[in-house]
Amino acid sequence: MDNEHSEAAEFTRFQSASEKRSFVMKIVVWVFIFLFLLVVAFWFGRNLFSLKTIVVNGSEHYSYTQILSAGNISKGDLIFSVSENDLDRELTEQLAYVRSVKVEKEYPGTVVITLEEETPEFYFEMQGEYFLLSRELKVLERFATSEKLLEIAPDVQFVQIPEVSRAVVCEPLQFALDSKSRHTDEALNMLVASRIYEGLSEIDFSDRFDMILVYENRLEISLGSFEDFAYKLDLALGMIHAYSEEAVGTFDIIYDADGELKGIATVNDPLEE
After folding, report:
1. Residue 248 CB partners (closer than 8 Å, separation 6+)
2. Is 128 helix (H, G, I), strand (E, B) or coil?
3. Consecutive sets of 10 residues in the chain, 273 residues long: mean pLDDT of each?
4. What's residue 32's pLDDT?
5. C-alpha triplet 193, 194, 198: angle, nearest 5°
6. In sequence order, which ranges of 113-174 are alpha helices (DSSP H)?
7. DSSP codes, 106-125
8. 90 — alpha (psi -120 to 50), left (phi > 0) or beta?
9. How far is Cα 236 from Cα 253, in angstroms, rounded to an integer?
10. CA 241, CA 234: separation in Å to the nearest integer?
11. Distance between CA atoms of 251 and 233, rounded to whole angstroms?
12. Which is it for strands 139-143 and 129-133: parallel, antiparallel or unpaired?
């Protein structure tokens, strides 16, 4: 009788162990199946959504290879890994002429990168070197001579500005003293947008309290400080049009005793004689 109980207990243990092994084997099999499906899905997704075509539009200053290298992007990357913000940051930090970047994704495997490039607007001299600037005073290039700079950008305007402490390609200018350079960038921006700009032959903003323009190499215009700058530009343009194209002399834009702006002209106009 004890023998039978012992055999029955042994059989129960064997059956229990067998069921456990079977359960474990099922789990192992399902794990392998899951991993296999995961690998297949990854492989399929990797091939389906990998970049096969990268299009770059809007670049005049950089090659296709330069842009992809600076943006750390290449064919075979997952389309999901391409970030407009990251590309914008990397390209604008490394390539001076890149102003902004837009990215359009065409699934499953095409990315279109569209660049907006900086337009050279000014140049200035510092310690015998010449620096090409955007309207916002970002340094675009550095040259040993003004002649070489003007070969590259013949339409830019020379400017005299307050002392600069740092001029590095891809970065905005840094002025030595904020107290002497305040509003320089704003004034230049407004000047470019004004109707008087196309006739200017000289711009001297080295003294922020005595901003001076020269129009067509014949009229020197003293604007004073940045205060009421837009109105001063309009007033100066009206004074220019009040005289003939032969007139030479100076215009002083000042505040009278009542605090009103007025223009004083000291001009020689042969057509009025």
Report:
1. 218, 219, 267, 268
2. coil
3. 54 59 68 56 60 96 96 93 96 97 95 97 97 97 97 96 97 94 95 96 96 98 97 96 95 94 94 73
4. 66
5. 95
6. 146-152
7. ETTTEEEEEEEE----EEEE
8. alpha
9. 7
10. 11
11. 11
12. antiparallel
pLDDT of residue 93: 95
Backbone angles phi, psi at 97, to 5 degrees: -80, -10
CB atoms within 10 A of CB 137: 24
How far is 138 from 131, CA to CA, in rounded Å? 10
Q: Which amino acid is at 35?
A: L
The set of residues, in sequence order, having a beta carbon less than 8 Å from that of 131 and lying 6+ positions away, is 123, 124, 125, 139, 141, 142, 143, 167, 173
pLDDT of 44 reads: 46
- Using N-to-C axis directions, what is the helix angle for 184-193 and 229-241, rounded to 10°? 40
Strand-pair partners of 255: 261
pLDDT of residue 119: 95
Separation of alpha carbons 127 and 134, rounded Å: 20
pLDDT of 34: 59
Which residues make Cβ contacts (< 8 Å) with residue 188, sequence separation at least 6?
121, 122, 135, 137, 159, 203, 205
**What was the pLDDT predicted at 79?**
92
Tell me the residue type at 93. E
Q: What pLDDT was estimated at residue 40?
A: 44
pLDDT of the residue at 30: 65
Decide if 74 contacts 109 (C-beta within 8 A).
no
Q: Are strands 219-224 and 248-255 parallel, antiparallel or unpaired?
A: parallel
Phi then psi for 166, rounded to 5 degrees? -150, 125
